[in-house]
Amino acid sequence: MENTKKRREFIKDRIYEDVRHDIITFHYQPGEKLSEYSLAEKFGVSRSPIRSVLQKLESESLVVIDPQRGTFVTKLDFDYIRDIIYLRWCVESTLMCQIAEQQPEALLLALRECLEKQKTLLTGHDIDPEEFTALDNAFHEAIYTGNHRENLWDVIQEVNTSYLRFRMLDLVQGNSHRQIYQDHCKLMQYMENKDTQNLRALLHQHLNGNLQTNEGIKREYKEYFTA
Amino acid sequence: MENTKKRREFIKDRIYEDVRHDIITFHYQPGEKLSEYSLAEKFGVSRSPIRSVLQKLESESLVVIDPQRGTFVTKLDFDYIRDIIYLRWCVESTLMCQIAEQQPEALLLALRECLEKQKTLLTGHDIDPEEFTALDNAFHEAIYTGNHRENLWDVIQEVNTSYLRFRMLDLVQGNSHRQIYQDHCKLMQYMENKDTQNLRALLHQHLNGNLQTNEGIKREYKEYFTA
DNA sequence: TTTCTTCAACTTGTATGTTAGTATACCATG
DNA sequence: CATGGTATACTAACATACAAGTTGAAGAAA
To answer: Residue B33's beta-bridge partner residues?
Structure first.
């Protein structure tokens, strides 16, 4: 049985992935101009697929299209990111409390396996930020899928890209991987011990990536943020 | 001081509002085909602005574009809607508990004013579903803005259209307006009395628009829903 | 009748003009 | 020098033409 829906790959799909990746990894810097014409030239295509790509990127707030002026990579808006963090906190703390309550065997096992993978990756040198991010995401995704909230995970992913860029900023510094892993382990413990009080508090801190360092990042990369 | 940012009105903006409205109000029915060419003809424009509109509508899951086949109004996916309800429940119950805790004077006053408007509208005959929806939304929006979560409200609105269509189904029947108003009043009471237990329970029921009636709607409009 | 092939009509993707708004460098004017 | 108008280059919005895949009906073959 073939359930992988064959969807022809269009030029715009490939370009979308390329440009999105380059924005998230700060290859294109916040504020940088991305004109249709120059992108079309770069990828060797016409402006039509580029327009599609830019409009899609605008819908996830990665670029802003200023009519007849230009299209620009959005700067990081901390007020916006702050609300995305709050959104995830509200949802994921509720989900985790539910897990703490019900102690679903299969899910807890899956989460422990996920943590093992993270531990393994951490033993090596030169940790690839994107690879670690994938494992980080896998842990959080399991929280959703384990509660049969796959759609909810997908929905949140669509608005999560701004937060993703924000987290990338301190991940490239390379010293927060271990902290994230340890947070996950503690969250795991709290769920197993039904310690919802500490669970919610730690998750808040975890999603914020340690409040004190945020201020440092905002200073260090202040040209990446909106005023 | 002029703070309304003058943004030139483009053809696609008007068409977007038109088509979106017609989908939400079921003028275009779920599953119906919306070809670029026929829409272009209907609005007397070329396919370019129509493509913009349809791509934007796809990003909020109101249409699905099947390449080289056609563009169709999406059917209501209850699994998806269920998760949107859960999302709103997680967020709004947290916000309301926060309000219950802090008892912010100005916000409580604003909420009471909002309820008065709803009460006034309910005294008349022939209640306009869209007008009531606006007042319903205003109550929920105040919960966000009162906690300085304007961005979060905006984010949720972007994924809320599917839920909006779902609620429209029983609103046109015209017998749930009073129930919604009464729910709001009770939620208000629970917040003032810091009764978070009942608050969370009622909000869940409120967002679901009464579980028992949902089954009836799914039967009555079953051609509007996915299998 | 049933099944397969062919083809025409229709779909969106892509390419390329054309139009109109914006920003800026330049120059004339005070 | 300061100011205001103008020409110009650039932008995205919009129009149009062509390309390529999908669908389904008509018709031939079994």
So the answer is: B72
Encoded amino acid at B139, one letter: F
| Helix, strand, or coil (residue B225) | strand
Query: Which mean pLDDT values do the consecutive 10-residue runs of chain B (227 residues) have?
Result: 56 97 96 97 97 97 97 96 97 98 97 96 84 93 97 96 90 83 97 97 91 75 91
B78 touches chain A (CB under 8 A): no
- Is the pLDDT at A193 greater than 80? The verdict is yes
| CB count in 10 Å sphere of residue A149 | 22
Task: Output the pTM of the full model.
Answer: 0.92
User: Looking at beta carbons, which residues of chain A come within 8 Å of B152?
Assistant: 83-84, 86-87
CA distances from A93 to A18, A98, A204 (A): 33, 8, 8
Length of chain A: 227
Share of chain A above pLDDT 90, in %: 80
CA B127/CA A190 separation, integer angstroms = 50
Which residue type does B32 have? E
User: Bridge-partner residues for A70, per DSSP?
Assistant: A66
Residue B35's H or E segment, with its range, is: none
> Does the CA dihedral A103-A105-A106-A109 come out positive or negative?
positive
Give the β-pairing of A63-66 and B70-73: unpaired
pLDDT over 70 (residue A2): no
- d(CA B109, C1' D26) / Å: 71
Nearest residue in chain B measured CA to CA from A96: B90
Measured between alpha carbons, how far is B204 from B196 in angstroms, rounded to an integer? Answer: 12
